[in-house]
Amino acid sequence: MARKKQKRSHGFGLTHSLNYRCPICCIIPPYMLEKVAVNGSPTQREWAFETLNLSAQTRGKRINSGSMQAAPPTGEKNRIIYDAKNAQQLPGEIVRNEGDSPSEDEAVNEAYDAAGATYDFFKEICDRTSIDNKGLRLDSTVHYGKDYENAFWNGSQMVYGDGDGELFNRFTKSVDVIGHELTHGVTQHEADLIYFGEAGALNESFSDVFGSLVKQRINNHTADKADWLIGVGLFTEKVKGEGIRSMKAPGKAYDDPILGKDPQPGHMKDIYTGTKDNGGVHINSGIPNRAFYLAASEIGGYAWEKAGKIWYVSLCKKLDSKSNIKQGAEATIAVARELYGEASSEQKAVENAWKEVGVNS
Fold this sequence. Notes:
The protein is α+β, with helices and mostly antiparallel strands. It is built from 11 helices and 10 strands. Helix 2 runs antiparallel to helix 3 (about 40-65), helix 4 crosses helix 5 (about 175-190) and helix 6 (about 195-220) runs antiparallel to helix 9 (about 305-320).
């Protein structure tokens, strides 16, 4: 079931190739911040503009410098938490090493614990040793920038802002956000899905899937008990919304005068075909997200045991950098058949899920 060796040239020019393959993968999509920049108070607009500008600058530095140097592999769980002290220089000052006692800083402890929970999930459920499957050290920086309204994986480490305190809380508060961002690293080392269009939507969706599964495992929730929301706790009480995305009901996670309305579709007939959001990577992830939710719910039990395994094997063995949503459906159906048998209930559940969201494989 080995996947054919990927071609690392995607047919784009150098700048586009780096932009699509090596982005700064942020949890808050640009369209949400753009709404704040239009609808928010003067202070909120300033925060939103600053976050958008800082994200663009950080992305540019990454593109110009190529791949960042990752921490050396260790073969075992090894976390280092840094404090940027509201500056923009990475990684910052070391404030907690693997095995150290908890800090008095909540953000430090949240980053440490959630990185550990994500490591444990991939190790114990997927038999994967860290992000690269070679024991990559998990580095995280907290307190990045001033009121920075985002969190991101930059290709070698996690980075968390503190939020503005009016719309967004600190970005270490939601374990699924941390699991989401670290999964971008897993995808980077496996299918290496480009961060544009449908391939980018699959990239985002895999991160939502495994971020949600990390949270479900911590909470010991079966598929029918899980909330299937991403980013619960990121919004302050002033925001009208449950989370930044809903895997169960794409398009219904939030509807707020400042942040706007959740634009995610849950069916292929409504797929976004424009160019913003890197061709809809966050927007269209709602379609494969709902497919996973439907498959996991029909299979039942703990979603990481069967549905999660199907999606993980598909990511590692079946997909390549330019796979689209239909190919994602074909891959997961094929893996369900290979793992559980032709016409098995698991295969039927996956097939039914993709048909429900308008993907015919």
